[in-house]
Amino acid sequence: MTDAKTGEPIAKVKVIIIGSGRSATTDRSGQFLLQNLAPGESELYITTIGYGLLKKRITLKPGEKNELQISLHQEAAQRLDEVTVTAGPFQQTQTNAASEHSLNKQELQSLSMLLIADPVRALQALPGVSGNDDFRSEFVLRGAGFRRVGFFIDGLFLPENPAHTAYGHDNAGQISILNTDTMASATLLSGAFPSRFGDGTAGLLNLETRDGNRIKPAGRIAGGLLSSSATFDGPLPGKGGAWLVSARKSYLQYLINALTNDEGRFDGIAVDFTDAQAKAVYDLTSHHQIGINAIVGWTDFDPKNSKLVFDEDEVANSHSRNSFAYLSWNYTAGPRFAAQTKFFNILTDYTNADVDHRPLQEGKVLHRGVRSDLNFTFHPDHRMEGGIYLREVRGSGNEITYRSNPPVSLSNYDRSSNQQGYYLQDTWSNKRLALALTAGARIDRFGLTDETVVMPRAALSFAPFENTRIRLGWGQYGEFPEFMHLYGSRGTQNLRAERATHYNVSIEQLIGSNTRILIEGYDREDKSLLFSMNDFLRRDGVQTFIDFPFRNSLKGYARGFELSLHRRSANRLTGWLAYSYTKTRLIDDVTGLRFVSDYDQRHTISAYGSYRLTNTFNLSGQWRYGSGMPMIGSSNDLNHQFTVLSERNSVRLPVYSRLDLRASKAFYFKRSKLTILGELINALGRDNFRQNGRRVDKLLPLLPSIGISFEF
Q1: How does residue 355 score in pLDDT terms, banded at 50, 70 and 90?
Q2: pTM score
Q3: First to last CA, the chain
Q4: If pLDDT is split at 50, 70 and 90, which confidence band does 369 have?
Q5: What is the SS3 string spanning 20-53?
Q6: Weakest mean pLDDT among 21-35, 280-294, 579-593
Q7: Which residues contact 500 (CB under 8 A, 6 or more apart)?
Q8: 602 or 694: which carries more pLDDT confidence?
Q9: How far apart are CA 655 and CA 660, in angstroms?
């Protein structure tokens, strides 16, 4: 018995002969023995906690011995053909990436909160990542906010964060519209990422959705205290493809009402949501595959279901929709040439209103276009990659304030334009020297700003010793302003792209086949960052109010290092321990202000561990620690007293520390598996805080949760 991806033997796998009551368990070498079986056809039921169900039919002739080679997936089996193992436990997903961290299916499931199965929240446990707000899935990467991290699904860029939230309300809860049950993996590129990707100046996140089960129909129904979900998949007729459908519904407001204090106030509003996904792939021939994938999420917040008290011009009603869909065509001519084309449509629209249902903000953003990527190996030592990205974009928005009589429209726009992107890179590899050199460039043009950005990039990796690899990366990156920056209430129409230059170096030392030590150092030089200020500031002892719209006035840097010990194995302990140090500095060219980034967290520790004690019982836990982030701005209401400071971001929040524990117990039946999950969030009961306007509010208390899933 082996892991389908790494080929590692798996111990503690239960192999049951259906209908006979007989079973066996694999040993450390992944082997099992069933003796004195009756001749004829038998059906095997194969599973262990953390892996999908596998059912296999065998036929025994009298006196025959049958040796089986079985590979287990972390989800239900996806293909009928044999699995060829080519990847190690730390295999990169992108060509010669300078800095890459990934989560597999099992890690995504374990790190996603049981309360809400959110794959984006799982990324908060990775090295270099900070996630100090329990109510939001967004995270901080190396001192930069989530807006500067390019968000991709199946290689397609999503300009708007696909989240359930009240748009324009920073203190609202936020949950990804993506269900962990439909994800295959997540990859985070923290620095100097390849030319294939654009639209991000700090890093890149790519989530890959999984295909359906190609062997037989299967399903998973899960329920917890705050949400329920159902996922079904199976083969298409003829077993030349597979389908998958999934849906999820929350009842999150019950928790919010329970945690709301006696004054009717809470740290932020939470939203109830529904989302769904449907995906299908079909192999036309051995060279051609077509597919379709659609994800949609609906979000609502209604004050009738809440004990909150709302002020004038405060969001009380919120309704939004996110939809993402594409048609794909994959062509594989052989090992030397492959092409992938996707036609996509992405829509986000929302409406926010006050407690009297008067509209406050409403907006709509539509993106549609095509992306095509080519891979061509014209020489055994050279791999060429190139592609184009064309999209039409349309955005509209309206913002109204009722603090004046009559009401005033702060912004009202309806604009459309297009974006073009082209990239090309070549990777030269020499196996004898254990050397790889990548050089390439990306060109993007955005019609709204009438700007073209050229971004060269390069990476070098080599292995001075057998188990040691050194990686160097450099690149220039750009990110165009969004509609709100150009035409919103604080918008400026002559904005340019934000720019960053990345320098990254890492040393990877393998210890055996399952453990590595990774040391990374980085320097990100930022310029032309967008900055808007609407705050009090004390200068020369005089309190003044500074107010200006967005402008490309910030420049500065983010520098630091990351140290991690990572073990990934199908047996015993798997997980990591990581420490990150980040220092940022920014300068506003217009006002001369000097301050640390809004997301400057100097010290971050993240730890995750999972241990499969038996084939039915698993324990896991994660601990995240972060030195306090700045209170954004120059004024605050701490200690119930309004204070104006002479420096921006000079007051910091208290240290953030949260320990989460989880236990999973599986029960096997004739053709199905029942798993009970228990989780203790903030197990130490520590008081953590986040910024809410000018004040500070508490985050989640010690919170137990229980869930159940049924697989068949």
Answers
A1: confident
A2: 0.89
A3: 21
A4: very high
A5: CCEEEECCCCCCCCCCCCCCEEEEEEEECCCCCC
A6: 21-35
A7: 201, 202, 476, 477, 478, 524, 525, 526, 527
A8: 602
A9: 17
What does the alpha-carbon distance between residue 338 and residue 530 come to, in Å, rounded to a whole number? 39
- What distance lies between CA 653 and its chain's CA centroid? 25
Q: Quickly tell me which residue has 């932020």 as its tokens.
A: 268
What are the percentages of helix, strand and coil residues in the chain, rounded to 5? 5, 55, 40
Torsional sign, CA 328, 330, 331, 337 = positive
Domains of the chain by start residue, with CATH: 2-72 (2.60.40.1120), 100-711 (2.40.170.20)
Alpha-carbon gap, residue 453 to 499, rounded angstroms: 9
Residue 545 one-letter amino acid: F
Residue 290: name the closest of 336, 337, 331 by CA: 331
Tokens at residue 569, please?
């194995």
Task: Report the C-alpha gap between 98 and 150 in whole angstroms.
Answer: 16
Highest mean pLDDT among 4-13, 40-49, 312-321, 323-332: 323-332
Q: CB neighbours of 63 closer than 8 A, spacing ≥ 6?
A: none
Res. 703: pLDDT tops 80:
yes
Sign of CA dihedral 460, 461, 464, 469: positive
Predicted local distance difference test score (pLDDT) of residue 114 = 63
DSSP 685: -
Query: Can you give the pLDDT at residue 80?
Result: 42
Beta partners for residue 469, in sequence order: 508
Q: Rounded to the nearest 5°, which phi and psi values hold at 57?
A: -95, 135
What is the rounded distance in angstroms from the CA atom of residue 186 to the CA atom of residue 112? 12
Q: Cα(186)–Cα(188) distance, rounded to whole angstroms?
A: 7
Quote the longest CA-to-CA distance of the chain: 96
Query: What is the structure's pLDDT at 600?
Result: 96
The residue length of the chain stands at 712
SS3 107: helix
Q: What pLDDT, on a 0 to 100 scale, did the predictor assign at position 36?
A: 66
Euclidean distance between CA atoms 706 and 677, whole angstroms: 6
- Residue identified by tokens 């900055």 is 531
Return d(Cα 618, Cα 637) in angstroms, integer.
45
For 148, 178, 196, 580, 606, the CA distances from 522, given in Å and listed in that order, are 17, 31, 21, 11, 19
Whole-number Cα distances in Å, 127 to 139, 180, 509, 577: 12, 20, 16, 8
User: Does position 76 have pLDDT exceeding 60, yes or no?
Assistant: no
* Average pLDDT of the residues of the chain: 87
Residues 6+ apart with CB under 8 A from 30: 1, 2, 9, 10, 11, 13
Closest CA to 483 of 645, 319, 350: 350
pLDDT band at 697 (very low <50, low <70, confident <90, very high): confident
**For 505-559, what is each residue's pLDDT tens digit?**
999 999 988 899 999 999 999 999 999 998 888 888 888 888 999 999 999 999 9
> By the 8 A CB rule, do 162 and 151 touch?
yes
Distance CA(402)–CA(409), nearest Å, equals 9
| Among 28-37, 68-77, 202-211, 688-697, the least confident range | 68-77
Query: How many other β-carbons are positioned within 10 Å of the β-carbon of residue 517?
Result: 14
Residue 111 phi/psi, 5-degree rounding, is -85, -15
CA 464 to chain centre: 33
CA distances from residue 618 to 247, 573, 574, 615 in whole angstroms, order as listed = 26, 10, 11, 8
